[in-house]
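Justification of resources, computational component.

The compute hours requested in this renewal are based largely on the per-chain cost of generating structure records like the one below. Each record pairs the submitted sequence with a full structure-token output. That output is archived, and it is also reused by downstream analysis tasks.
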Amino acid sequence: MEHDGLIGSLIDAIRMLTRAEHMDWGGHGSARRDERSFFINSGASIRSAVTPEDILAIDFDGGLEQGTAKPPLEFPLHAEIYRARPDVTAIMHTHPKWSTLLSMVGAPFRPVFPQGALLGEVPVLDSPLSINTRDMGERVAATLGAGPAVLLKSHGAVVTGRDMLECFARTVYLEENASRQYLAMQIGTPYVLSEAEQEACRSRLGTPSLYRKAWDHYDAALKRG
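The structure output for this chain reads:
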């Protein structure tokens, strides 16, 4: 099959995120195929058991190029980010608990632990609506800007990466930071890393070897069942 390795990493990422309860039955992930199309899991796929047969290739307008199933209704979210950001080659749209709770009450996402600094202060799209039109996809891409992630108010999260490994690691870092921030807020005011501390964390922690460490941790958990 075309791009077997890329499809395999997309499947692994979706299954690991589902196992970790970062992605639910309605999330989706994608990987850029070329300058005009991308791979994405089908709308009907069972995320926790996604297979190669569940992966489609579609163009930026939703036209089917590989596979037979239908893409998720929110494919414009991926298409418009790929259209606006040539540097992005992987995207995850998840419905995580902790970071969504922050957006529900208007609490800004703040870097409160080292890996959280790789996300910075994540912007929020002030709409809980489904991203199922090109216009809505363009709004997501505009809110994302040049950053790594965006939260969708009372809805979920969108995380990008220059490759699948970076996208996956950023996705789990986002939710881990949000969980620590939320829990700390129940006690008092969380300490937020200073700009200097964030820069130090980004320079030391944003490496493929450390992204791989996160990947391997979740991969082992998935294989243990």
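The chain has seven helices and eight strands. Residues 164-185 form the longest helix (22 residues).
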